[in-house]
Amino acid sequence: MTRGEFRTSEAGKPSVEDLGVDPGELTWRRSGEGADAIEIAFVRAGGEQWVLMRVAAHPSGLVHVFSAHEWRCFLDGVRNGEFDDAAL
Length: 88
Prior knowledge:
Blueprint: H1 16-19, E1 29-30, E2 38-45, E3 48-55, E4 64-67, H2 68-79
Antiparallel strand pairs: 1-2, 2-3, 3-4
């Protein structure tokens, strides 16, 4: 199955449900401590790698789905300081 075979949202990519994964069964990595920490999980579905992101305080809430390419672009931007002026 390829990405194009997933039912997709208006954003053109699958949701967690579309990927067929159970967020409660995944291994999540935390950005830090506290309820506002960001959690990331890596999954393989439909022959592709996906990155899931959620807020630690709401584990059953909204989960964002990013393709491996989107995730690499984000990390590249962080490494190159592209978001430094957005830091609070």
